[in-house]
Amino acid sequence: MEPDDRWIWTDLALAVSVTVLVLALGAFAVGALLAGGSPLTLTLGLAAVEAVAIVLGVGVAWLRRAPAPPALGLRGVSAKTIARAVGVGVACMPLVGFVALGVRVLLGGPVDNPQLEAFQDAEMSAATLALMVLLVGLIVPVAEELLFRGLLLDFLRQRYGAGPAILGSSVAFGMVHFEPSIAVGTGVLGVVMGVARLKTGSLWPAVAIHATNNTLSAVAMYLTL
C-alpha cells in the first residue's frame, strides 16, 4: 500500500496540542524569569516561546508520519519568485496597516497601534532592533508558516478545496493574534500568503511575504520612538 499523503485529524490535533502545551509552559516560565522586565523584553521572550512551540508541534506531527510524512510545501523556488514575494510583502504592509486602522476606528477605540505598548519604557538600540528582526522578522514567520500555510492549509485544502483552505487558515492565523484590529489585519495578510502558497506550491514565498511584513513593521515601530 502506498503511504497516505494527506494530513489527518490526528496529525492536526497532535500538532495543536503540543504547540499549546509548550506555549503554556513556556509562557509561564518566561513570565517568571522576566518578571519586572520591560514589555518589549517580555514580548520578545513570548515570541521565542511561540516559535519553539510551533516547530515542536508541527515537528512531532511530521515525525509521527515518518518515514513518508505528507508535504509541508518545503520545496525550493527560484530567487525571482522569492524577490516577487518580498515585493508583495512590501506592498502588503500599508494594506494591513490601513485594514487594522479601519477596524480600530469602527470599534471606536484609540487609533494608535496597540503593539506600540510593548515599546514603552524600552531601551531601544541597534542591537535590540537586530534581535527583533531576527526573532520577529525571520524565526517567527518560518514557524507560523509551517503551521498555518504548511500543515493547516494543506489539511483544509485536501478536504474542502483551495478557497475554504485559504480562508480557514487565514481566520485561524488572525485569531491567534487576539487583538481585534491586528487579528483582522493579519487575517488579510494570511489570505495573500495562502494564495502565494498554493500558486507556487511552496511555503517559502509565504515565508518571504510574512518575514518582509514583520521586518518592516518592526523597523517602522523602532523609528517612531
Structure characterization notes:
The chain is mostly helical and 225 residues long. The protein has a domain at 73-224. It has 7 helices and no strands. It has helices at residues 9-33, 39-64, 79-106, 126-160, 162-175, 180-200, 204-224. The longest helix has 35 residues, at 126-160.
| Major sheet characteristics | none
Helix percent band = over 70%
Q: What overall form do the CA principal axes indicate?
A: globular
- Which radius of gyration do the C-alpha atoms yield? 18 Å
Beta-strand percentage range: under 5%
Structural category: mainly alpha
Mean pLDDT: 89
**In terms of per-residue confidence, which ranges show pLDDT below 50 for 5 or more consecutive residues?**
none
Number of strands: 0
Elements, N to C (H/E) = HHHHHHH
What is the end-to-end distance? 60 Å
How many individual helices?
Answer: 7
Multimerization state: single chain
Topology record:
Blueprint: H1 9-33, H2 39-64, H3 79-106, H4 126-160, H5 162-175, H6 180-200, H7 204-224
Provide a short characterization of the protein structure.
By secondary structure, the protein is mainly alpha-helical. The chain has helices at residues 9-33, 39-64, 79-106, 126-160, 162-175, 180-200, 204-224.
Keywords, please?
225 residues, 7 helices, mainly alpha, 0% strand
